[in-house]
User: Fold this.
Amino acid sequence: MIRLPDACGVLREYAPRTEPAVPAVPAAGSPPLVSRTVFSAAHVVADPFADTTPDGPAAVDWDATLAFRRHLWSHGLGVAEAMDTAQRGMGLDWAAAAELIRRSAAEAAACGGRIACGVGTDQLTGPASCLDEVRAAYEEQLAVVEEAGAQAIVMASRATAALARSPEDYLELYGHLLRQASEPVILHWLGPMFDPALTGYWGSEDLDAATETFLAVIAEHPDKVDGVKISLLDAGREVALRRRLPGGVRCYTGDDFNYPELIAGEDPAAGGRFSHALLGIFDPLAPLAAEAVRVLDTGDPAGFRKLLDPTVELSRHLFQAPTRYYKTGVVFLAWLAGHQEHFTMVGGMQSARSLPHLARAYELADSLGLFPDPALAEARMRQLLAVHGVAA
Assistant:
């Protein structure tokens, strides 16, 4: 038994599992995922021995970071690199992100893993003076991703949100970038719950109006858009948007609240549309998520939902408001699972969630059987509790 604090600070007994639910290492010869394209947005592992500060350059443990990506690829998932899960704009500076892109893309090429990388404007550390400056920043990052041999994910930009004054500004900026891209990209619409600085993206705080601008960008350049990643935590809005996408343009769900139903898709009588996935929650859920998609590959959506539906409570817990701090829970679970030797994050973000929040994350993840070594996870949870003054 282990004593865990609840949201009221009351200690209660919890009996941990003794066996994982799915193998930590997939069986040799596991088939690839075929019915859905699935990316996990992956976290970075900090160097815990670096003498740095929260606002200093990011110090990354490259060996552990790349090992985690090999773990994701081994299960058949793609890696969405240098995204907000990797703490872009929350501890990971552009210099470190560029190095991460180069290293991960080379690792992907070496092991045959799928990779797509975030293109943003976060090298602009101060306010941009004009949209031409924002465009140049996007171009610089797009060049880094394409030179690395990775697919580009054009992310929403704080600098764009600060300077764009109309839908036309977005149409012009994104039109230029899409014409310049050498291969089809993924467009990313990240909602303000993930980053308040992105409020009013696509030229309006009215999501209906913003959707029209977003679709207009795609309609003008359908040959340059592989897909769109929607992170608005609104299943109905995602379903409505994906029904309006041009043929051949995929919808990648970024909805960490409603992903099972969105990936499973609509009844064939309603058109059978579905979402692919590009999700931060698939960082801790990788083995289980891959197993669920393989069940879906056999034509068994009910079996897929049976595996994945129980994970939603954990995901909603990790992504609860303030949603942008979900990264702390993701890294915490990676530590408990043995993917890294410490619970330290770039920018000091390990302090962004409370002990009761982390305790509940441990309990939910353990109840799902996510930990390859439940005894190790329990021992590390006890270490964290002791640091916070909870006696064994």
Notes: The mean pLDDT is 95. The beta strands are 2-5, 11-14, 38-41, 78-81, 115-119, 151-154, 185-190, 225-231, 250-253, 276-279.
